[in-house]
Amino acid sequence: MPSPKCTYKRLVALMKKMALEAEDSPLPSEQMAAVYQRMRANPPWGAAPVLLDKEVVPLVGALNGMKGIVTVESCCGHGKDPFYIWFYAESVDTVRPLFEFVSTRRGWRIIFQDYIFCLKGPKGERAYRESEQLAAAILNIPS
Fold first, then answer.
1. Domain residue spans in the chain?
2. When you count CB atoms within 10 A of the terminal residue's CB, does the N or C end of the chain come out lower?
3. CA nearest to 79, candidates 122, 127, 120, 124
4. What is the CATH number that goes with domain 8-45+53-139?
5. Which comes out higher in pLDDT, residue 143 or 85?
6. Is the predicted pLDDT of residue 85 greater than 60, yes or no?
């Protein structure tokens, strides 16, 4: 179920709704955790070196350093398109600090669809500068 702009509260409500509709299948929270575990154990890029746009490196590194998050794709937008990082999370609570960040920044949002998240930012220099601020904030989150 896609969400064009997702708040933490809306995501929690969506997960509850999905849980009610799940019937015999695993709960959405269990499915989210399972997808995260698969991606953490067997990333799509395998053992190959990963080439990243230099503008996304600090934020990708900070996200991958968070317990319960694994990034899978990113692009700086090259000044023409929005900045984005696709990632899986072990649980909804794992991404709460990111929701708190984007709720105070114009042009940033989190998209959730099919158990994958996308942290999407504005275009160009502003995105690069603010992504570095977010990376620094993530690195300062107490473990």
1. 8-45+53-139
2. C
3. 124
4. 3.90.1150
5. 85
6. yes
